[in-house]
Amino acid sequence: MSTVFVKPGVCGLDTTITVEKVGRSGVKVSMDTKCPYVKKMEADLQEIDGFSECFSKFADSKVYQSANNNCKHLACPVPSGIIKAIEVESGLALPRDVEFNIQK
Hints:
Blueprint: E1 2-6, E2 15-22, E3 26-33, H1 36-41, E4 48-49, H2 50-54, H3 62-70, H4 78-89
Antiparallel strand pairs: 1-2, 2-3, 3-4
């Protein structure tokens, strides 16, 4: 099981993403969040091929298709966090933190 904690910013709707392997290359995504839009994505991501997902184009990604259909904020970092968790759980990346530093 791999977990990513996302603090998305001003909205304050933190999300905990958990990805579990299902079979050889499948993964199941679950999310603990108060964001109703992100929570809707969970239904679309119950069993997807982790390897294919991590090497697909944005338009072909089940994660980004779900975000397109459910999320209301284009800059939401949760879809990227989901991909990162899938990469780690699928053995395609090491668990390393990602960080945005926003200044004005």
